[in-house]
Amino acid sequence: MNNKIKKIIPQLITLLFVILVFAFFSINASINMDSRGIDFGFGFLSQESSFDVQFSLIDYDGSYSYYRAYLVGLLNTLLVSFISIIFCTIIGVIIGVARLSPNYLIRNTAAWYVEFFRNIPLLLQLFFWYYAALRVLPLPEKADALLGVSYLTIKGFYIPSMIWNNLDIFIYSILASIISIIFIRFYAKKIQETKGKQIPLVYISAAILIVLPLLSFLFGNVSLSFEIPVLKKLAKTSYIFEGGISLPPELIALVLSLSLYTSTFIAECVRAGIQGVGKGQREAAASVGLTPNQVLKLVIMPQALRIIIPPTTNQYLNLTKNSSLAAAIAYPDLVLVFAGTALMQTGKAIEIVSITMFTYLTISLAIAALMNWYNKKIEIKEK
Question: How far, in Å, CA of 250 to CA of 55, rounded?
Fold first, then answer.
């Protein structure tokens, strides 16, 4: 009993200290706000924002509330983070494996890539892509078509948009494909553990992902058409593309800089993970007749992932937080829209900064929880 008390007392003291520090700053802030006649509250969220945003995933204009502006900034932040995480993961894995290639040219090219992008500050890379690369692109009326349907201009990247008929049926077919693949994976794992046979999961999964959606087109009356961007003249010297999807240059620059910068750290995580697997594992796998690709897929990567996932999670968190640099090039993310424009108009510094901090904290905890779940799922368990 005494040992339990001894373990609890330091924790209680620490908790009490944190509470006292928080109470001190809260009371101090409250006194200062009262002396200046500043009210504390979140009622401003329902007030009209009275400012526009150049890029939004949902309907928005100045007549909407500050809460709507918060959602616009949040969705834009999630969009750039999600796209960048996908790209930096793909690039990082490729570069990480390439760094261990026996080919001199491939190995050293990958090494130079890592050293180059890792050692240039992210903000400078962001400025380079936005001001030096994208701001020198042609005006819409002078842009050449890419593949006849897309246009890369100083005002953004214009691509065709998809117009669906009976989209819900197509989504159901995709969900059915995913569920079928999950069941097949469980079945294949059971067969491998009991009989030692391998089922070609890649080919079967690819066939399911193709066949079921194709059946929805043939028998579910699903159809797909594309809306191509068309150049329109607004004034004597002003042109713009209408139709399709417009990706602003700020989004492109931010995705490029975040992806290239973060991929270098992920590449090092991948390289360290692969090198963390003993050479004896490779030699034993090769001695039983496995090809180099099978050795990497079946022996090396399952063991390397337990080393790769934890530091890669940190890089995902860093990428999400680094996306706040978007304010430097006026991309309307959470910091610029809510912690910038909304804060200056309302003067609600404590409330808005608190909401912004809590939002980033929630996103980071969600990413960490997801990656920890995946790390737990793939861990090697002895039977």
Answer: 10
